[in-house]
Amino acid sequence: MDMNRSFNVRKEDRSPEWIELNAEGQVLGRLATKIANILRGKHRPYYTPHTDCGDYVIVLNAEKVVLTGNKWTDKIYITKAHGYMGNKKETAARDLAKKHPEKIIELAVERMLPKNKLSRSIIGKLKVYVGQTHPHQAQVAPKSK
Questions:
Q1: CA–CA separation, 28 and 105 (whole Å)
Q2: Given pLDDT bands bounded at 50, 70 and 90, which one contains residue 72?
Q3: Residue 74 and residue 92: Cα distance in Å, rounded?
Q4: Strand order, beta sheet including 126-128
Q5: What is the rounded CA–CA span in Å between residue 72 and residue 91?
Q6: Are 93 and 72 in contact (CB under 8 A)?
Q7: Would you say residue 145 has pLDDT above 80?
Q8: How far is CA 23 from the centre of its chain?
Q9: How far is CA 30 from the centre of its chain?
Q10: Whether the Cβ atoms of residue 116 and residue 144 lie closer than 8 Å to each other
Q11: Which fold has domain 18-67+100-128?
Q12: Is 113 in contact with 122 (CB distance < 8 Å)?
């Protein structure tokens, strides 16, 4: 590679991999930061901010993620249906984890990505599952010993 020229990854030149992560016993914020960096491609030497050069991420055991302090009761997720008065709903993290444990990780990662068109396509490469199994066995390469 010539060091006097800049290098930008094109969409055709990238070769995304599938990375499996286990959320068991991991702190939500630290896990979400790691996932967001992998999705954007910041772990690669040829990272280009305006191009999707990241990998696919599969997160297993979403129900076993850890929140520090009193966040299980104090952290509130707010949803609103725009255009309707009084349609604001507040859900504590503990309640959301009972109904949809994968939603906590998805929201944390989505809020760490930049707010633009590229991040809306990047978040589609995140797959979060409850338990150890997932339907993407063919995409994940076997680990060499």
A1: 7
A2: very high
A3: 7
A4: 18-22, 56-60, 126-128
A5: 11
A6: yes
A7: no
A8: 12
A9: 11
A10: no
A11: Ribosomal Protein L13p; Chain: A; (3.90.1180)
A12: yes
Task: Give Cα 108 to chain centroid, integer Å.
Answer: 7
Structural contact between residues 110 and 32, judged by C-beta atoms closer than 8 angstroms = no
- 143's CB contacts (< 8 A; 6+ apart) are none
Residue 23 is predicted with a pLDDT of: 97
Alpha-carbon separation of residue 73 from 15, 61, 69, 138, 144 (angstroms): 41, 21, 9, 39, 42
Note the residue count of the chain. 145
Amino acid 3 reads M
Amino acid 143: pLDDT: 62
Percentage of residues in the chain with pLDDT exceeding 90? 67
Q: How far apart are CA 23 and CA 67, in angstroms?
A: 12
- Tokens, residue 77: 């997720």
Picking from 105, 22, 33, 124, the residue whose alpha carbon sits closest to that of residue 42 is 33
Q: How many CB atoms lie within 10 A of CB 47?
A: 14
| Sequence ranges of the domains in the chain | 18-67+100-128
Classify residue 3 by its DSSP letter.
T
